[in-house]
Amino acid sequence: MTVRDLGYRAYEGELLPSSHNSWVLLRYGLWRIWGSWVNKIVVFFFWFPCVVYVGLALFRYFIVGPEMPPEAVEEGGWFAGPPGEWMRYLTAAQFWFFAIPVTLRSGAGIVAGDLSHKAYQFYFAKPVTAVQYLIGRAAALALFLFGLIFVPTLILALVFVGTGPEDQMLERLGLLLPAFLDALVIATSLSVLAVGVSAISKSRALTLTAWVVLLVVPFALGMLVEQIGEVEWMHAISVPGLLWSLGDGLYKVHDSWEQLKWFHAAPLLLALCAGAGYFAYVRISRAEVIT
Amino acid sequence: MSEASIRAVRLSKWYGKVTAVSDVSLQLGPGIWGLLGPNGSGKTTFMRLVAGQIKPSTGRLTVDGEAPFANPNVLRRVGYCPEADSIYEQLTGLEFVSAMAELSGYPPADARKHAEVALEEFGLTDSMHRKMGGYSRGMRQRAKLAQCIVHDPDVLLLDEPLTGTDPSSRQQILDALKRRAKEGALVLFSTHVLPEIEALTEQVLLIARGQVVAQGHMQEIRELLDEHPHHVRVRCDRPRELASALLAHESGVVALHFPAPDLLEVRTWQPDETYDAIAEQALALDLDLHSITSPDANLEALFHYLVERANRGAGSGADAGTGGARQLEKASERTAYQQQLEAGQGAGESAGADA
User: Fold this and answer.
1) Cα A54 to Cα A83: distance, rounded to the nearest angstrom
2) Under DSSP, is residue A72 helix (H, G, I), strand (E, B) or coil?
3) Which residues are CB-neighbours of A55 under 8 A, at least 6 positions away?
4) Which residues of A touch B83 (CB under 8 A)?
5) Chain B residues with CB inside 8 Å of A6's CB?
6) Separation in Å, CA of B66 to nearest CA in chain A
7) Beta carbons of B124 and B172 less than 8 angstroms apart
8) Least CB-CB distance to B152: which of A8, A17, A35?
9) Do A2 and B182 touch (CB under 8 A)?
10) How far apart are CA A232 and CA A270, in angstroms?
């Protein structure tokens, strides 16, 4: 019996271009992310804040009516705030409670796992380039994070559209764009940074620690300095701070900080992501090991 | 489409100060080739060079007529099965092999179909839907081999493909590789276990310290094993008496050594005659014989011998570029080796001094 008898034929169909590889890596990367029990738990719970916010929005609609009375708005408080502010808070909840755990769980090992297992040898024996590999890896995580952040804000936005005064319908529909862009910026930034941090070492423990340090320490430091010295610039060294500032700019609802504006945060975040991406590229290109 | 081929001309690869592959020249055509070498000899680096994963430091390498490094045309025609046992545990065998087929350019539906056939070829039909985390080592090895052939390559590079396999899966793998070679594929597989090569091919490349020290027919390797000096260790109650008797006997003994009071180490050119003589003398002297072992009846000793020979200038990997197998000049080699032995031995180790 020959190989041909078993059904083997030299492939006669059209081969897809190698640019298709990032898409393949993305799809299988999503499977890997879904394979983690931490991420399954996250998916199970990530609706909860949305349900709470939607419940409150409906409660406000039925108790107060489609529009808050001007005196209540003047008194302030998030409950009386505009829909955009609600969505900002929901995004923050999704970011800290769901996006961060997923990024830590799947992002820390996204490249480190392949480095330690020498899985590159499988990928790079196929017509896969380092750039395609990185895009595929980052995109899988980004898509997952995007879903975690955008879907709840989308639902909340639609609830606001449905329960708002008719003359504000278009304005409220307009919230979908900043919601989409904000989720996209958060998901992309975290994924690219995750790829960079994950390429630091083969050790997942080390990359996980690096991630925690990168996300938490500068943010805590920024908060501390803001409280003590009333200096907001320290948030410029923290990833959550930069993302939050950018989100403020996108929603145009209110500025969290007087000093750090979105146009300061955008180039800083871009530089950080570009640096992380380049670092990962260099590390993978030099991933030659004597075996 | 050109015929499956690997051609290296003065190929070298360094990692900093470490030379992994040194000045290798060779030309391989369709068929099965065994790449034989001890651990750390440069087999994997050579494989990875051919698989286009690393760039040569110097020299030229072509696979099917083109340089393989970062060349999608070549990579689509090459199937590489790395030694690393790094398979995603969350994926099923079918998902893993399908993914690899897709990365070779197959549309998803075709990739799946081909993955099923490839897994079937290696006997994984029943377990293709199971997560690979639950696979045995042999099954993982077969899944790796399936991903290697799934895109129907004509150059197969297999790094220690039989590691961890049981006899039945080993046979399955060997049969599949033979079928591939019959179809016109070039199969280059590395191992440090001689019988694995013997079961598959007669064409062998010997690599040691990054150099191709010999290229040729399996029979020649066997002859080399037979003709390089062997060590025989005899543990008995009166080793010195046995040593005297062996020296008096025409058994090809070139050196004797006593590493322990009850241990005699014999170095001989004629192992068969020496074994016979030991048995004969043990009976004649009524020795209390505990064991007879040979510490170097393996490839390590042969590589050692060939490397020393290469270092003496008898040849380098570049010799292989002519395509012909290098024949060892037995008599001159033996004399040179013997001289080297004599020069290198301490006084207490020489036959005359000890015996």
Assistant:
1) 11
2) helix
3) none
4) 291
5) 117, 120-121
6) 14
7) no
8) A8
9) yes
10) 20
**Closest approach of chain A CAs to the CA of B282, in angstroms?**
46
Q: What is the pTM of this model?
A: 0.73
**Each residue's pLDDT tens digit, B42-97:** 888 999 999 988 889 999 999 988 999 888 888 888 999 988 776 777 788 999 99
Tokens 């409280």 found at: A227
Shortest Cα distance from A214 to chain B (angstroms)?
28
CA-CA distances (angstroms) from residue B204 to A175, A190, A291, B172?
69, 51, 22, 21
* CB proximity list for A64: less than 8 A, separation 6 or greater: A72
Helix (H) or strand (E) holding B115: helix B108-121
**Closest residue on chain B to A15 (Cα):** B105
Tokens 């670092």 found at? A279
Maximum alpha-carbon separation in chain B: 76
Calpha distance A261→B146 (Å, rounded): 54
Question: Hey, are the CB atoms on B84 and A119 less than 8 Å from each other?
Answer: yes
Strand B186-191 versus strand B155-159 pairing type? parallel
CB contact under 8 A, A6 and B44: no
Number of alpha helices (DSSP H) and beta strands (DSSP E) in chain B = 13, 13
- From residue B157, give the alpha-carbon distance in Å to each of A260, B48, B57, B259, B292: 56, 9, 21, 43, 39
ipTM of the complex: 0.75
* Residue pLDDT, tens place only, A218-272: 888 888 887 787 777 777 788 888 888 888 888 876 666 777 778 888 899 999 9
In the chain, the amino acid numbered A42 is V
Mutate to test the interface with A, among B1, B103, B188 (most CBs of A within 10 A): B103
Own/partner contacts of A12-20, CB < 8 Å, gap of 24 or more, are A13/B106, A13/B107, A13/B110, A14/B107, A15/B76, A15/B104, A15/B105, A15/B106, A16/B102, A16/B105, A16/B106, A16/B107, A17/B105, A18/A127, A18/A128, A18/A129, A18/A132, A18/B72, A18/B105, A19/A132, A20/B102, A20/B105
Query: Does the beta-carbon distance from A126 to B104 stay under 8 Å?
Result: yes
